Amino acid sequence: MILSTELEHKGDLYPSKIISYRKDVDTLYFTTENFVVLQVTVRRDSVLRFRYSTKTIFDKDFSYAITKYASRGFNHLEITDDKAHYIITTSKLICKIAKADLRKSIYDAKDGKLICEDELGFHWEESYEFGGDIVKMSKVSQDSEAYYGLGDKPVHVNLKGKRFENWVTDSYAYGRGSDPIYKSIPFYIGLHHTKSYGIFFDNTFRSFFDFCAERRNITSYWAEGGEMNYYFIYGPNMTDVVASYTDLTGKPHQLPPLWSLGYHQCKWSYYPESNVKAVTSKFRELKIPCDAIYLDIDYMDGFRCFTWNKEYFPDPKRMVKELLDDGFKTIAIIDPGIKIDLDYPVFKEALEKDYFCKRADGPYMKGKVWPGECYFPDYTDPEVREWWSGLFKELIQDIGVRGVWNDMNEPAVMDVPGKTFPDDVRHNYEGLRCSHRKAHNIYGMQMARATYQGLKKYSYPKRPFVITRAAYSGTQRYTSTWTGDNVATWDHLNIANIQAQRLSMSGYSFVGSDIGGFAEQPNGELFARWIQLGIFHPFCRTHSSGDHGDQEPWAFGNNITDIVRKFIEIRYQLLPYLYTSFWRYAEEGIPILKSLVLFDQADPHTHYRNDEFIFGEKILACPIAEPNAKGRRMYFPIGEWYNFWTNELIEGGEEFWVDADLDSMPIFVKAGAIIPKYPVQQYVGEKEIKELGLDVYYKNGKEKSQVYEDAQDGYDYKKGRFSLRNFKLIGKKKSITIQQFKSGKFITPYKNFKIKLNGLPFDIDKIEVDHEVTDFAKVKINGDNTFVVNKEFTKLTIFGK
After folding, report:
1. Contact in structure between 300 and 341 (CB atoms under 8 Å)
2. 778 pLDDT band (50/70/90 cuts)?
């Protein structure tokens, strides 16, 4: 007879003392008296993995986030112990594990200083409702510690004092502080005493992070299921932390085609064909550069994915070809919801092959989205992903669409609580079957992955271009992203700036916002200011909900049109600079956008700056984000900075007022920089590049710069057919020397550099190219300190009088 029906609540449970320890190559196992096992894996000298089990055994080790290409290996590993601790020592870290309770403290191996320490450390609560554990971790916040990262959270760059939830959510017209929203990137960076580290909590269940919000000096994170499984990543430089995290979760599998870094125009929706053509013709008529035009859901037949509305688009292949002939690449939207319709081949095939998600007791997961009632493919099944990727053959290979935009892939479901699938939906999860509680946060990632695989296959030999709204850590391997359905307000211009910086420091650099705002209608001033910010985001696209009005560059009168054109032209001039930054991101994991704290963490003034950011390595930008402004105050990082417009030199380390009327914005260039420039083009590939501009900014000292180029598309660069130019500038009181070191087999189409010298403190007396004095007439020197020199030089010296 059962006498008690009361549920026993055990509360938080904690590891007891360690009773055994063993080592297996790079992995250590510590077992406690109450059957908790801590598994520590030394992945690199600066990267440790901590994984806990409360049942002595571990589930199969699998992660969607960790790339198989992640770096492994270390130079030193030593295991010792004393009375109270086991001690793990690498060349970068010392990790002490308490024998009494598994609590850990981690130190810098070089100076012995504390980096990170557990407070309560690992603890857990048994979940009676779902089984398994609610897993928890708490750590001590060090003096003046600051926190960054966590993906797309629309809050201050520094996360301290706030709590967050990670649950990918369709968040139409979200605002400052809205949480959760579109992405789940459970990675944060801690910074104190000029040392930086990162923690990646690789758990796909609904998770939470508290940065000293509940308890003043305690940081904690927990998840509603799964394992306590996290990676500790040490810098001490923050850039190295981000690069190591990006290495762990994956750098982009290839460079993007250069055209995808141009300007894109989008709207919900451009239709019929005559409307699309009217928009693209207007771009060419007004000579506003643009490389891509978008087709939202209205191009489809009844919102059925992979179909066309033949009334609006009677001959899509012809239209796409004609647009391409005019320089426009066509991007089409594809959502996950597949309309329930037995006369619809995509639906019928997926139904017959059992590719749709199901509820716990067997019925299909049915939800309402744009086509009406839909079923949803289970992208966590490899067979389903293969099928999905094959669906792109007609769209990409036959019709010629050049990019795909995945939307609504949180997954979003209309008219239901929570705006998504219920928890009892089941997923394949690579054969490790699970509920939606575990698969929700990676659903959009796996859809984007399958889309990417289809485009890679059918775009070949061109490179794929995919955009996703939903993402989990690692999605940056496959696609670009944007910040979702924002609003045409000044505050959202500020939010877009912060989100792009935050995503970049969270490993996801190929990011932009809906320029001008998706919901509601901007005025001309707001649109112009947003364009000014947008040209510095790697993904540069205007997008709007058409029922709020027009949002093309010419929609706000001639004055705004001229300003928008001016800034988009700057974007196209800077394409080789941006492409070089993207190459560094793809090769080394270095973010393209850098918050000032990422640029100079030793300067405490940078720790709370939101507005200013570094674009690439050498350009400082700061948007004007309020109406009627004639300028603004901004902080300049330590160093010397040239005004992009006037060449005025500013010594950094403090705030200054910067004039910036509507046709300008604060842009500055680091002293010593060499900035590559292309001529203005209406689209990438319109002109043969006959001369590469190099804007050289004088510095009394040394500075390094790079220029990376290749065929701008295709895969030959992976076979060594690229051009990498490393420049070293050496400035003295009466001379400036530029040394060039070139690698790679790609032959650039131009023969000469057009060099522009900025900020020279002397008049030019003579120019030496590879130790030979050159006649001024030969290099076509002008009074504005511009001249032409053969691209093959190894040493160029300009002497002053």
Report:
1. no
2. confident
SS3 746: coil
pLDDT attached to residue 1: 60
Residue 521, φ and ψ in degrees, nearest 5:
-125, 125
CA of residue 262 relative to chain centroid, distance: 17
Q: How far is CA 742 from the centre of its chain?
A: 29
Residue in the structure block whose two tokens are 């020397």: 737
Q: Is 410 a catalytic residue?
A: yes
Closest C-alpha to 340, from 373, 311, 369, 383: 373
- Residue 304 phi/psi, 5-degree rounding, is -85, 120
Look up 133 and say whether it is catalytic: no
Instruction: Tell me how crowded residue 788 is: count the other CB atoms within 10 A of its CB.
Output: 15
The whole-angstrom separation of Cα 651 and Cα 670 is 10
Residue type at position 746:
F
From the list 574, 540, 634, the residue with the least C-alpha distance to 265 is 540
In the predicted model, what is the mean pLDDT of residues 449-477?
A: 98
Q: At what angle do helices 558-573 and 575-588 cross, to 10 degrees?
A: 50
Alpha carbons 683 and 123: distance in angstroms, whole number: 56
Tell me the pLDDT of the chain averaged across its residues.
Answer: 97
CB neighbourhood size of 749 (10 A): 11
Active-site hit among 152, 273, 298, 410: 410
Tokens at 225, concatenated: 């299921």
Tokens for 32, please give them. 């406690």
Residues 567, 569, 570, CA angle at the centre, nearest 5°? 65
Q: Grade residue 540 by pLDDT with cuts at 50, 70 and 90.
A: very high
pLDDT of 392 over the 80 cut: yes
485 is catalytic: yes
**Contact assessment for residue 767 and residue 799, using Cβ atoms and an 8 Å cutoff:** yes
Continuous segment of H or E residues that includes residue 454:
helix 436-459
Tokens of 154: 């629309």
Q: How far apart are CA 17 and CA 36, in angstroms?
A: 9
- At 97, list the tokens: 């594990």
The residue type at 443? Y
* 180 upstream amide cis, omega within 30 of 0: yes
**From 45, 227, 291, 485, the catalytic residue:** 485
Q: State whether residue 549 is helix, strand or coil.
A: coil
Residue with tokens 């053509």: 277
CA atoms 158, 161, 165, 166: torsion sign: positive
- Measure CA of the first residue to CA of the last residue in the chain; give whole Å: 104
**Residues 101, 202, 407, 525: which is the catalytic one?**
407
